Amino acid sequence: MSLCSWSAPAIRAPRAGMLMLGSDTNLEERSVVRQHEAPPRLGSSACLPRYHVVEARVVNPNRRIRTEGVEETLALGQDIGSSATPRSIVVINGDLGAGKTVLAHGIARGLGVATWRGSPTFAIVHEYRGRLPLFHLDAYRLEPGEVEELDLDRMLDAQGVVAVEWGDKVLPALAARSPSRLVRIGIVDEGDDLRSIEIAE
What we know:
This protein has 2 domains: 1-53, no CATH class; 61-200, P-loop containing nucleotide triphosphate hydrolases (Rossmann fold), CATH 3.40.50. Helices cover 17% and strands 27% of the residues. It is built from 4 helices and 10 strands. The chain has a 7-stranded mixed beta sheet with strand order 4-10-9-5-8-7-6. A 3-stranded antiparallel beta sheet has the order 2-1-3, with no helix packed on it. The two termini are 24 Å apart. Mean pLDDT is 75; it is low at 1-60.
């Protein structure tokens, strides 16, 4: 649809510095651009520029996104969380310090979780109440066979969302649960607070 036809309920006001994507670029090779013009007031008749705010629920299921700083990574996670469906599994991979826990925190925000307890590195699982139950796992110390001890079936039967840091280590066991949605996210630290994030479903 034409961006000029958007109405106020269909958009949100961009935050200062929020990453924008060109609306007509190739989804696999597009570059990230910034919108420096002041956006029109919500509900105004002004035609919006040919850019849209990065939102996980409206762009292609297989995509690459670049964020700058913690807040933008949190915002991306929040968009993923706000569009999450019951029995979803989100696998988050990346080196130490890449931003996996930050993205998981954003997912929690998107699900309406009020209090965040950080990475479950030693606890293995943190459970949260939100719009849907959230089960945040850290698989860094897990062996594939140990996944069976986590009772993933209970988490999914509770209509929950399971977010797993270092999830590729135990991916076959996760996929075997037949989740309603399996999202794989890879994060690369490019330096200077930049993160390249690839999302695949």
